[in-house]
Amino acid sequence: MSALKAVHFGAGNIGRGFVGLILHKAGYEVVFADVNAELIDSLASTPSYVVTEVGDGASVWTVDNYRALNSATHEADVVAEIATANIVTTAVGPNILRFVAPLIAAAIAQRSADLPPLAVMACENAINATDLLKAEVVKALPDAALAEGAVFANTAVDRIVPGQDPDAGLDVTVESFFEWAIESTPFGAATPVIPDAHFVDDLAPYIERKLFTVNTGHATAAYHGFAAGVSSMSEAFSTPAIAAEVRAVLAETKALLVAKHDFDPEVQQAYIDKNMVRFANPELSDTVDRVGRQPLRKLGRNERFVGPAAELAERGMPSDALVRTMGVALAFDVPEDPQSVELQQLLTSLPAESFVAQVSGLEEGHPLFADVVAVVRAHQS
Ligand SMILES: NC(=O)c1ccc[n+]([C@@H]2O[C@H](COP(=O)([O-])OP(=O)(O)OC[C@H]3O[C@@H](n4cnc5c(N)ncnc54)[C@H](O)[C@@H]3O)[C@@H](O)[C@H]2O)c1
Ligand SMILES: O=P(O)(O)OC[C@@H](O)[C@@H](O)[C@H](O)[C@H](O)CO
C-alpha cells in the first residue's frame, strides 16, 4: 500500500461536501461508491467538483483525485478497492448500513494479512453507528475472527449540508462550520492521519451533545415549521414561536447532558446559542422536508427525541417540550418521503399504545410511555 486510499459509501450531500472533502484534504485518493447510477456516472466522468462554504471564515475547495464506482452493479470492484484501502467510511443513512456491510465483509475476508487493519468509520447521525455497521459486517463474515483485520471506530459528524440546487451538478454548498470527532481507543497508537478530524477517548459525550442539541433542535424547528406551513429552515428559525419551541427542547436536553456527562451548564448554553445562529443561516437554503425526513427513524428509541426524553423521564426530570414536539412531528405528511407516508398509515391503523410501542420502542411500563401515548391519542382524535 503506497498512496493513501479511502473508499466512501454515499456520494450524496455529506459524502461530497464533508467526508470526501476532508479525506481529500488529508491526502487520500477517495473512491466514491454509490447506487445512484446518474451520480456515479457524473462523478466518474468529471475530474473535480467544488465545495463552496458559506458563513464565517468561508473557503472554496476543489476536490479531485477521486474515482467513482457503482456499488449496485460493480460490487466486486468495490470489494477489491476496499481490500486495498486504508479507510472505509459511510454516509448513506443508518438504515442503509446493513446493505453496505456485506461488501466491507467480503473485502476484509480478501484483505492481505500484510496490510495494516482497515479503518471502518460510519459517519451517520446515530449513536454508535459504526457499532451497528460492525455487527452487520461480522454477521456477513465467513469467520468472525476475520474482524481482527479491521478497526471499527464510532464517529460524530457535524456540518449542515442542505439539499443542493438541481443545476449545481456535483458542486456542493455547505456551511463553513464542521466537526468530525472520532473515537481513538480502537486504533491504539495507529490513528489514521486526518488532520481536520479530532480523536477523542470517549465519544459518548460528543455524539450525544451533537445529536441531542444540533439534531434535536433542527428537527424540532422542522416539525413545528411544517405544522405552521413554513418550508424553509431559516424562516422556521426566524419565527419566534418556533424558535421558542427549539429553545424549550434544548433546555431539556441541556439538563440531561449536564446531569449525565457533567457538562458545564454555561458551556452547553454557549453551544446551544452558537447552534441557534448556525440553524438560522439564511445563506443555507435548507428545507423542513429535508430536516424532518424519515420521521419514523427520528421518532425511534435511541434517536433525537425519544432518546433524551426517555432518559429524562427515568431521572424524574421534565421532557414536556420534547414530548410536545413528538406530537407535532406526527403531522409530518410529505408524499415524497416514504417514511412519512408510512407514519400516516400507522397513525390511522394502530391504536396509540401499539403505535408508541412500535415506533418509539418504549415499553408500556416506561415512565415516558403514557406521555407519548397521550400526544399520539390527541393527534388521532
Ligand atoms: N446533510 C447533512 O447536513 C448531514 C450532516 C451530518 C450527517 N449527515 C448524515 O449523513 C448521512 C447521509 O446524509 P446526506 O444528507 O448526505 O444524504 P444524501 O441523500 O444526500 O446522500 C446519501 C447517499 O447515499 C446513497 N446510497 C443509498 N443507498 C446506498 C447504498 N446501498 N450503497 C451506497 N450508497 C447508497 C444515495 O444514493 C445518496 O447519494 C445520513 O446518515 C445523515 O444523517 C448528514
Ligand atoms: O440527517 P438526518 O436526517 O439525521 O437529520 C437532518 C439534519 O438535522 C442533519 O442532516 C443536519 O443537517 C446535520 O446533522 C448537521 O450536522
From TrEMBL:
Sorted alphabetically, which keywords does the UniProt record give?
Answer: NAD, Oxidoreductase
Q: What are the binding positions for NAD(+) in this chain? A: 6-17
Q: What is its EC number?
A: 1.1.1.17
Reactions mediated catalytically: D-mannitol 1-phosphate + NAD(+) = beta-D-fructose 6-phosphate + NADH + H(+)
Which superkingdom, per the lineage?
Answer: Bacteria
Residues in Mannitol dehydrogenase N-terminal domain copies? 5-194
Query: Pfam families recorded for this chain?
Result: Mannitol_dh (PF01232), Mannitol_dh_C (PF08125)
Residues forming the Mannitol dehydrogenase C-terminal domain are 202-348
Per its record, what are the GO molecular function terms?
A: mannitol-1-phosphate 5-dehydrogenase activity
SUPFAM superfamilies for this protein: 6-phosphogluconate dehydrogenase C-terminal domain-like (SSF48179), NAD(P)-binding Rossmann-fold domains (SSF51735)
Note whether Glycoprotein occurs among the keywords: no
Q: Does the keyword section mention Nucleotide-binding? A: no
Q: Which family does the similarity line name?
A: Belongs to the mannitol dehydrogenase family.
The protein, known as: Mannitol-1-phosphate 5-dehydrogenase
